[in-house]
Design brief:
This is SGNH/GDSL hydrolase family protein. Keywords: Membrane, Transmembrane, Transmembrane helix. Strand 4 and strand 5 form a beta hairpin. The strands form 4 sheets. A 5-stranded parallel beta sheet has the order 2-1-3-13-14. The chain has a 4-stranded antiparallel beta sheet with strand order 6-11-8-9. With 521 residues, the protein is α/β, with parallel strands linked by helices. The chain has 20 helices and 14 strands. The model has no long low-confidence stretch (mean pLDDT 93).
Length: 521
């Protein structure tokens, strides 16, 4: 007897297809859910021990989440590029007893107006009572501007292409960028941005290991590998990479059994002088002196009990090199400009406990900056020329600064006309106006050496006039601080203040913002 097997076969086939389809959908949903929970939520619960100016994209997202999950009685958000990071010291401002607001950064390196435009909703979610945009001429993306007769033209096609491959675009706002420019970028960029828009693991893989590696280095290794020195600061100062000056006088807060130091030259002679307290240091009365000869270069362990076998209590040690000294250029601290002698390199947390608190937006004072103030103005100008201007067009690390410098010269012969990158600032202004959040633009200080290139240009006058006119319509403010720091030695480069310069500017910044805060309160 024959049976018709086709009907049940087709039914089984159809049922199997549905099962496969539903299983695939369920698997994709599970992957998206896992990706969201692990890489967007749980990942940022890991302790952040990364240091100032390291892992910028991780730190920016971490800081944004921190602000979004907390509230202050009154919060002032300082936003902008590295110009903002190097101009204001929120940690110092927040130490004051009578504080009308809490200052916090919403900033990362190379933040263009377009970046801030795409971040505006995220910034709004950080609960600001006041938004201060520290803005600079250099932020206006001059590498995409070309001089045509009496005006500039903006190369939007190149801008769209290159912005699609920038880290902020790929890491923080790929979906928004795709929505606006999907039909104007090449297939390769489209594919990359689409993947990053779908999966956080794809976005965050560029920095995924950063906080984990730093945590392991801090807690389970010798302290010989690090980004910035976090130990006790010697009285004479120290370079950010931990290199001392020719002498290092250190108040040893935590006297571990063993510390690590690095010596550059073979057959180095070191002298250790131990002092009981500040009084004996002032009187130059050490309780013990020990000289050691180190035959090999590199890292080595030192043992305090071996260096001070008397076991007399001490709190201060002075370390001196009695043999030939290396220089900053020899140990790769600097490449150009005035060279100077250095001493030894100290381990990460030398004479100090592990600094595990979040320091990703906390800036410290290092000799890298402090040395400029010790120079005469003439010495600094010569050093600055060698370091920042000489042959800048052919040095990769200075290429963008060279482009900005040339733009400053070119604006002297053109009239001001708004372009898309500039208009982003006006759109940001309108956004905060619509959301009833006070918005202030502060034109950050500029190095007088470089500001002179366009100080008296009609273009600059028209630019600021137009900016003020547009913001005034919305009851917002533009504050021009371009010239408030007149001493060139407080600038590291054309737009970034040294730590000492930022300390001076802090009070100027605060006094300018205070009346706006008072109006709200």
């Amino acid at each position: 007897m024959e049976t018709n097997s086709r009907v049940p076969l087709n039914q089984n086939s159809l049922g199997m297809k549905w099962k496969v389809f539903l299983s695939t959908i369920a698997l994709l949903c599970a992957i998206f859910l896992f990706d969201r929970i692990l890489f967007f939520d749980l990942y940022f619960l890991f302790p952040n021990e990364t240091e100032w100016d390291s892992s910028p994209w991780y730190n920016f997202i971490y800081k944004t989440k921190e602000l979004q999950s907390s509230k202050d009685k009154h919060r002032t958000i300082v936003t902008g590029s590295s110009v903002a990071l190097y101009s204001v010291l929120p940690d110092e401002l927040n130490k004051k007893e009578k504080l009308n607001t809490k200052y916090s950064f919403f900033s990362h390196v190379a933040m263009a107006p377009t970046d801030l435009y795409y971040y505006k909703e995220n910034l709004l979610s950080t609960n600001p009572n006041l938004v201060v945009y520290l803005h600079n001429f250099a932020d206006l993306q001059w590498e995409y501007m070309a001089k045509n007769g009496e005006s500039f033209s903006f190369d939007e096609r190149t801008w769209i292409k290159e912005f699609s491959s920038r880290y902020p675009t790929k890491t923080i706002y790929p979906t928004s960028y795709l929505k606006d420019y999907w039909n104007e970028i090449d297939r390769k960029s489209l594919s990359k941005l689409a993947t990053k828009a779908l999966f956080y693991v794809s976005r965050y893989r560029i920095f995924f290991w950063d906080p984990i590696v730093v945590f392991i280095d801090n807690h389970f290794r010798s302290g010989r590998k690090y980004h910035l020195y976090q130990g006790v600061l010697p009285k004479e100062g120290i370079w950010s990479k931990g290199w001392t000056k020719t002498t290092a006088t250190i108040e040893c807060k935590v006297q571990k059994d063993t510390e690590s130091i690095f010596v550059q030259n073979k057959k180095t002679k070191l002298q250790f002088l131990f002092f009981e307290n500040q009084h004996t240091l002032i009187n130059n009365a050490p309780i013990h002196t020990q000289i050691i000869n180190i035959q090999k270069s590199g890292w080595l362990d030192i043992h305090w009990k071996e260096l001070n076998p008397s076991n007399l209590p001490w709190s201060i040690v002075k370390i001196q090199i009695l043999s030939q000294l290396p220089t900053a250029k020899e140990v790769n601290l600097i490449r150009y400009g005035k060279d100077e002698e250095v001493g030894i390199r100290l381990a990460h947390f030398f004479c100090h406990g592990i600094q595990s608190e979040n320091r990703s937006y906390s800036r410290a004072s290092y000799w890298d900056d402090t040395r400029f103030v010790q120079m005469s103005v003439d010495e600094f100008q010569k050093e600055y020329f060698e370091r920042m201007i000489k042959d800048a067009g052919n040095r990769k690390e200075l290429w963008r600064l060279h482009v900005v410098r040339e733009a400053k010269k070119n604006v002297n012969s053109v009239e001001f006309k708004p372009w898309s990158e500039y208009n982003r600032i006006l759109e940001i202004s309108e956004f905060f106006y619509q959301n009833q959040i006070p918005f202030v633009i502060v034109l950050s200080p500029e190095n007088p050496i470089e500001f002179a290139y366009y100080k008296n240009s009609n273009w600059r006058k028209e630019w600021i006039s137009h900016l003020k006119e547009q913001l005034t319509k919305r009851g917002q403010t533009v504050i021009d601080h371009t010239e408030v720091i007149s001493d060139v030695r407080y600038f590291f480069d054309p737009h970034h203040l040294t730590y000492e310069g930022a300390k001076i500017y802090n009070s100027i910044f605060e006094s300018s913002i205070a009346p706006i805060i008072s109006k709200e309160n």
